[in-house]
Amino acid sequence: MSYQYLIVERPADGVALVRLNRPRQYNALNLQVLTELAHAFQTLDNDESVRAIVLTGNDKAFAAGADIKEMLEKRPHEMKNAPFISGWDAVALARKPVIAAVSGYALGGGAELAWACDIIIASETAVFGQPEINLGIIPGAGGTQRLARTVGKYLTMEIVLNDRRLTAEEAARFGLVNHVYPVDTYLEEAIKLAAKIATRAPLAVQYAKEAVLYAYEAPLQAGLQHERLLFYTLFSTEDQKEGMQAFIEKRAPRWHGR
């Protein structure tokens, strides 16, 4: 895959690495970046050789937000009709696990891109925030909703209403970041984690992700029923038989993804 503002690599077996590559603009998310991001994620999600995806920027910026110059003169119908949100949606709707490797600025739409991922690995220099209020707007790609579901009403209000920025350590303390590493190693650690997940039974990984995400949207009893359905369904797969047989035989399983 060849893109203007993305670099797609395969750093490990089963792992795809997607780099935002607009460094002079701190990886600001314009329509071209978001269109390419949507295409890349849809393509990788349909590639059976890919079992986990890492999304990153560079050491100075994961993504510093949406491209304000591009948005300035837009009207409501133009924003609604352009495929503007497609990039965030493609990340959030991927069936395969997505790990954000974040360093430097993750602000506005950049923070929302991280929130759309399943796991977040941060460097010690990472800074997260939703500064849209300073522009006379609000987060529009999930920031108010995903933050509130993760850290609760009160901290979300301060972040969204008063542009509170979170350091990597603060984000980890509030449950927004899984691990914090030095700048020299955060991406390597994210790829290692993705590679480890890629060794798991592919269908079980996808179903597990689906079950956890369902918990965000459903009451407990509905979530339990959905989890149970996914659990039972996995007993129709070859991987379930192989995984249990391998456990009994005390050997490593050989996953087939079916």
Based on the model shown, name its key terms.
2 domains, 2-enoyl-CoA Hydratase, Chain A, domain 1, alpha/beta, 258 residues, Lyase 2-enoyl-coa Hydratase, Chain  A, domain 2, 46% helix, 12 helices, six-stranded mixed sheet, 10 strands
Provide the CATH topology of the largest domain.
2-enoyl-CoA Hydratase, Chain A, domain 1
- Count of β-strands: 10
Structural class, please?
Answer: alpha/beta
Which CATH architecture of the largest domain would you pick?
Answer: Alpha-Beta Complex
Discrete helix count = 12
**Radius of gyration using CA atoms only:** 19 Å
Strand content: 15-25%
Q: Class of the largest domain in CATH?
A: Alpha Beta
- How many individual domains? 2
Description:
- α1 (31-45) runs parallel beside α4 and α10 runs antiparallel to α11.
- The model has no long low-confidence stretch (mean pLDDT 91).
- The longest helix has 16 residues, at 202-217.
- The protein has helices at residues 31-45, 68-71, 76-81, 86-92, 109-115, 143-151, 153-162, 168-173, 186-198, 202-217, 220-233, 238-248, and strands spanning 6-12, 15-20, 52-56, 61-63, 98-102, 105-107, 119-123, 127-129, 166-167, 179-181.
- The chain has twelve helices and ten strands.
- The chain has two domains: 6-198, 2-enoyl-CoA Hydratase, Chain A, domain 1, CATH 3.90.226; 202-248, Lyase 2-enoyl-coa Hydratase, Chain  A, domain 2 (Orthogonal Bundle).
